[in-house]
User: Fold this.
Amino acid sequence: MSNVILQTSHINKYFHDPVTVPVLNDLSMSVDKGEFVSVVGKSGCGKSTLLYILSTMDTDYEGQLWIDQDLITGKKEKELARIRNEKIGFVFQFHYLLNEFSVLKNVMLPGLKLNQYSESEIEHRAMERLRMLHMEDLALKNANQLSGGQKQRVAIARALINDPAIIMGDEPTGNLDKKNGEIVFDIFQELAVHYHQTLLIVTHDPEFAARTNRIIEMEDGRIIRQ
Amino acid sequence: MNYKLIFSVSFSLLRARWKQTLIAAIGVTFSITMFIALLSFMTGLNGLLDGLILNRTPHVRIYNDIKPTKNQPVNVSGTYKDYHNFIRSVKSPSARQEIFNSGAVMDAIRRDDRVAGLAPKIIAPVFFTAGTIDITGVVNGIDVQAESSLFHFNDYIVAGKAIDLKNVPNSIILGKGVADKLLAEPGDVVQVTTSQGDIMPLKVVGYFQSGLQDFDKVQCYASINTAQKLLGKPNNYITDIQVKLKDLNQAPMVAKEYGALFDADTEDIQTANSQFETGSFIRTLISYSVGITLLIVAGFGIYNILNMMIYEKMDTIAILKATGFSGRDVNRIFIVIALTIGLAGGLVGLVFGFGLSAIIDQIPFRTPALPTITTFPVNYNPAFYLIGAVFSLVTTYFAGYFPARKASKVDPVVIIRGK
Assistant:
C-alpha cells in the first residue's frame, strides 16, 4: 500500500451541458511508485477527462482521489494548487511554454512558486534538468524561438523541477513528428528506468502504449483492461 | 507569499505587451496631468477672484449704522410695560456716525489675541466738481500703512505712491474711473464738496484701480487727517474700524462679541461676501468633477486593456494554474499589472502636471481690471498632487480588480481541453 502514488475509488463524472451525460463510470484504479502507465482508448472515451480529475484541476466529480496517500477530494483551490505544484508534473499536447519567459525561467517557474530552495539553487536545478534532456544550450533563448520537439523537452524539464511524485501527460507526443515523438518517449523511458519516476500518460498512439509497463484501456467511461 | 515571483511574472507580462501597457499608462498620465493643471489653474484663478474682494474686505467691520432707535421711550417706560404700544413714523435720530470713544475701542481690539491688525477709516460721501457737473464719490480716509499691510492697498495703486497720501498734505488718490471722468492727472488739484456743502481743494497724488469698474468710479482715498479736515471733525473722529483676524473663520463670533462690547454695529466677512464663497465652492467643485471624470475614463482604458490581455493570455494563465499557481496568485499578478500602470502613469502625470502648471504660470495675462497680475495665476498646492497620486492608484486598482478576478477564475481544464 505504501507504494501507491495515485489511487481512485468509484469515480463518477457527468457533463451537464446541454443534457446530463455520464462520462466516467465507477472508475477505480491505482498507480504504484515507479510505474510507467499509459491510458489508451478511443476519442471521447473519457481518458482526458480522467486525467484532469487525477491532476486535481477538475474537481466536479463523485468518488475519491488520493495522491501520495493523501486524500485530495474536497480540498480547497489553494491547497490543490499547492499539490499540483509540488506533486504533479505536467506535459501537455499543445500548451508548452510561456512565451513571455526564457527557456530557463519557464523551467524555474514552478520551482520559484514552490519556494523551497533559493533562486540560485532553483536555477542550478533547472540547468541540471535541461542538461539531462540535452537542452542546456538553449536555456537563455526565448520560449517561442524553439521547435515543437524542443519545446516539449523543455516542458518535461519543467515538469521535473520540483521532483514530482508523478508526471502526467496528455498526448505529449500527439503533436510531434515521428522522430521528436521518439525522442520524447525515450526521455520518459529513461526517467522511468533510471530515475524510477512514476509516469501516467494519456495517448491514442498504440505503439507508444505498447512500450510502457502497463496499459489502462478505457471505453465509454469504464476501464475495460488494466 | 512569494511576492518576488508575482512581481517578476507581472513585469514579464507587461513587457510582452509593452505597447498596450504604454497606452494605458499614457491614459493615466494624461488624466493626472490634466487633473493637476486644471485644479492648480482653477484654484489659482479662484484665489485671484476672491482676492479681488476678500483681500480688501475686513474680517470684522465696526461702524454705526443709521437706523431708528430700537427701544423707543414708551417701551422703556414702566407705566406702559403691559400695553401694546403702536408708534408710527419713527425716524432715525441724528446720531453721530462716528464710533464712540474710538481710541479706547481700538486699544482694546489691539490687545485681543485673535486680531492680526486693525485699520481705522472714515467714509465721507462727496461731490467732485468738474466744470458744471458734480460727480458723486466717496472719500475714504485711511491709515495708509495699516491699509497697505492688512488690505494690500499698495497693490492697487496704478499711478503715484500710496505713501504720498501721508506725506503730501491735503492729497487724494482718485479711483481710475473717477480720474477718467474728471480728466485729472497726478499733480492736478480737484475740488471736493462735502454733503454739508463745504468745498476743499485736494491734490491728486495717484490713481487707484481695483479691477471692479463700479468701485473705481466712486471710491477715492485720502489720509485720515485729510478726511477729518474735509468733514470739519476733530482728530478722534472715526466712522469705521476694520479688523483683520488671524483666523477668518472666527469672524462671525468676534463680530457678535464686539457688537455687544462696544455697542456698535458689526459685520463679518462671511455675511458681507457670502456669494463669493459660494462661487469659489462651485468652481472648485467643477474642477474636481472634471479631474475625477478624466481619471475614471483612464480607469476604463486600463480595464479594457487588462481585459484584452486576459483573453490573450488565457493559455499563460492556464499553464500557470496547471503548474501550481492558485487563483489568488493569478489575481495578484493582474492587480500588480494594473497598479504598476497606475503608479508609473500617475508619477509621470504628476511631473507633467507640475510642468504644465509651470507653463500656464508663465503665460502673460494682462488686463486693465487686474493691475497687479502679469501671468495666469496658478496655485501649487501639494494637496492636489497627493489627491492625484492616491486617485490614480485607487482607480487603477478598481480597473484591475474585475479583470483580475476574472483571470483568477479561468478554468485551466477548459483552456487546455479547448485546443
Remarks:
- DSSP finds seven helices and ten strands in chain A.
